[in-house]
Design brief:
By secondary structure, the chain is mostly beta strands. The protein is built from two helices and 13 strands; from the N terminus they run αβββββββαββββββ. It is 7% helix and 46% strand.
Length: 189
């Protein structure tokens, strides 16, 4: 996350959110950059990716800071609809088209030191959701291992945190939306 956004969040005491769409479903959520790295002597294959919801609470009423995307898509974009009872990791096609489960479309095979980066767009309109990714990887003859990934890239760090807009639209600290042409965050309400 850009230092500017972190500073703005700290100064306003608010929650960061993006506004994006998965298929025709547009809502608030969060954007995260994740890099998966092969760290075994043999090739590692990701055979399953799941979203594990850890906690759901009502949307906050503090300060909402919206940061629209800037359109640079050099890595795979994947989407997660956290309002789905069984959220799946879906590939967001570069040129439009239907969302499909990531591992139905792409295979992820990593040699030692090889990396695969993802931008995760996680959306919700119902609850503030804390969650983690759970990857099942296979290597060697038949060894499988589950790996959890949280917001800091470790298994035990803070979970990913996705905040929706609250339903009544009232924020005690206001709503600030980043203007990408100026980089400023004017107060909208």
């Amino acid at each position: 996350m850009e230092q500017e956004l972190v500073d703005k969040k700290r100064s306003l005491g608010g929650f960061l959110t993006v506004y994006d769409c998965l298929d025709s479903s547009c809502k608030n959520g969060s954007s995260h950059l994740v890099t998966v790295v092969g760290n075994r002597r043999e090739k590692v294959r990701v055979v399953d990716i799941r979203v594990k919801v850890l906690d759901q609470t009502e949307a906050p009423h503090g300060t909402l800071i919206v940061y629209p995307g800037e359109g640079a898509n050099a890595i795979e974009r994947i989407g997660i609809d956290l309002d789905d009872p069984s959220p799946r990791v879906m590939l967001i096609p570069e040129n439009g088209g239907d969302l499909r489960p990531l591992l139905d479309v792409k295979s992820i095979d990593l040699d030692r030191g090889e990396q695969q980066g993802f931008e995760i767009i996680a959306l919700t309109s119902n609850y503030r959701v804390k969650w983690e990714l759970e990857l099942t990887v296979a290597y060697g003859q038949s060894t499988k291992e589950k790996i959890r990934i949280r917001s800091d890239g470790t298994e035990n760090g803070a979970p990913f945190d996705t905040v929706p807009a609250n339903r009544d639209g009232n924020y005690s600290g206001g709503v600030y939306v980043r203007d990408n042409s100026t980089g400023e965050f004017p107060r909208e309400r």
